[in-house]
Prior knowledge:
Elements: H1 55-63, E1 66-70, E2 73-74, E3 78-80, E4 87-88, H2 90-102, E5 109-113, H3 119-125, E6 130-131, H4 139-142, E7 145-154, E8 156-161, E9 176-180, H5 184-192, E10 197-201, H6 204-212, E11 218-222, H7 223-232, E12 237-240, E13 247-254, H8 258-270, H9 272-282
Parallel strand pairs: 1-5, 1-6, 9-10, 9-11
Antiparallel strand pairs: 2-3, 3-4, 7-13, 8-11, 8-12
The structure holds glutamic acid.
Amino acid sequence: xxxxxxxxxxxxxxxxxxxxxxxxxxxxxxxxxxxxxxxxxxxxxxxxxxxxxxxxxxxxxxxxxxxxxxxxxxxxxxxxxxxxxxxxxxxxxxxxxxxxxxxxxxxxxxxxxxxxxxxxxxxxxxxxxxxxxxxxxxxxxxxxxxxxxxxxxxxxxxxxxxxxxxxxxxxxxxxxxxxxxxxxxxxxxxxxxxxxxxxxxxxxxxxxxxxxxxxxxxxxxxxxxxxxxxxxxxxxxxxxxxxxxxxxxxxxxxxxxxxxxxxxxxxxxxxxxxxxxxxxxxxxxxxxxxxxxxxxxxx
Length: 299
Ligand code: GLU
C-alpha cells in the first residue's frame, strides 16, 4: 500500500530538544537514517510515498502541494506572528509532520485559516486537504467528515479577568460567557448552563478582547487554548476551575477516506518520540498537560 523510505524525523529549530533515532524503513512516523536537518525543513520529508485508495492523497499529488486548514490566533497551538509571518504551535507542527510524512516540505504547504464554524464545510468542499486546529472529534462531525487521531486530549475551561470572582463553571449564573460559533464549547454552555448568557464570535481572540475590555465576564473553550491566552497577558487574565469536558483532538479529513486516516494514524502511533518533541517545543513550558493518546477507530 505504501512504500516510504524516509519519514519525518524532527529536525527543527530547537535542536537541543531533538530525539532522533536510527534508521528503519517502511512505516510512517519513522525517523530519518541520519537524523540530520534537511535544508532547514522542520521535518525530514519522506520520499517515494505511495498511498493507494486515498482521494485526498490523489488530489495532493495532482496539485503538487498540501492545503492545510489551521487556526492562526491561538498561541501555542496555531498562531501566525503578524510581524514575522511565522506560523507556530503544536497543531501547526502536527500539520507539518503529516505533510512531511506525505512527502511535502514547508514550501509545498499552503496554510488556510479557517474558523471553528466553517471547518466541516471546508473539508466537504475540498478547500483543504486536512484540518489541524483544536478540532474535537464528535459524533455530529463524524456524520460529515472523518477524523484521524486523536492526537491530543484536553478539556473545556474558563478564562476570566485576574480580579474576577468567578472560580469555576458553577459561578456562571447571570454571567456573560463568550466563545466561538460552531464550537463544542459554546454548545456546552447553551446546553448545560442556561443560567449564563452567551456571546459568540468567529474566533477566541475576539472573545479575549471582549474580556479585556469588560464586555464579557468569561471566555470558555479548551483549557489548552485558554492557557495560551493567559500566558500572553498573565497580569490581567487567569484560567480558573476544573475542566468540565473531554475534548479529543482529531485531524479532520474528507469523509470516508479511510486510507488517509489509516496512514495518519500509523504515523501517530509509530511517531511517539516526534510527538513528544512537538509537544515539548510548543506546549511543554506552558503548563498544558500532555500525554500522547492512543489513536482509536473513530473515523
Ligand atoms: N475543541 C473545541 C471544538 O472543536 C473547541 C475549540 C475550537 O473551536 O476549535 O469545537
